[in-house]
Amino acid sequence: MTHHAKTAVLLVNMGGAESPAALRKFLSHMFMDPYILPFAKPFRWLLSTMISSLRYKKSWKKYEMIGGTPLLRSTQATTETLQLRLGADYLVRYAYSYSDPMIEKAMESIRQEGIDQIVVLPLYPQSSYTTTSSVLADVERFQQKHPSVKIRFVHQFFKERGFIAFWTNRIREHERQVASGDHALLIFSAHSIPEFNIVKGDTYAAAVHQSAASIAESMGRTHAVAFQSGMSGGKWVGPDLKRKLMTLDKDQEVVILPISFVHENLETCYDLDCEILPFASQVLGFRRITRVALPEADPLFIDLLAEIVGSDGDAA
Questions:
Q1: Structure pTM?
Q2: Which CATH architecture has domain 161-291?
Q3: Fewer CB in a 10 Å sphere around the end CB: N or C, the chain?
């Protein structure tokens, strides 16, 4: 079918699951990814089979606690809103690395609609081997099969003015909602990654620090950076968020910002809201600690994506 749009925009995220069986499949796909587990394929297969089999029931209980899979809903809402924002000259679709619709299949579907220009926009503000590079590998496999398709790949977008504007607005709105002043310590929390990726040249941790500094400085605020949701075993980028909180004055008001995420997900709704915030208040004794929420299709975030799509660069 020939589509009247001239260019497609493919928003890419990790994915998720809406049933225990789908979650097991999601975990299997994720741990088969060499950008997640950089081992030989037979060893990855063994590990992915073991991990997905052992973890999916426990992980599904966490999803049930937070009311399902918010990332899927948010990605769909963002796609629909961006489509309205960009208009008929663009076709906006979404794809996932580890659940349907998968990246290569989504790109092939776009190609079959008669569109030969695609902007691939991973929804990861700071590029990492574990996320953006994995997406790029899928895109390059498609490109090898269809070299005539023109692809622009957005590597990261944390330096964009719109990204800083999005976060400063979220902070101000949050502090209005919780009746907080501008004296709270801002703690920017990002998903941790294995330290060996940094040794190999991954710029993710440095980008997280740059993101936090840019936003805090634009507001004249005191800030700190920490990392969360690292797996057990091996060395992970720190400081760990829980350990960071243990070092702080418990009378200090704290606002946590999930800086590496643009949509709510298990790491925000469960790891932060169900584990870390209760730990901080009930165990450590913080009198006031809150977390900035991520709306499904924030207007400023949609503006940011539209600006990136309309630019000529890769937003790196």
A1: 0.95
A2: 3-Layer(aba) Sandwich (3.40)
A3: N
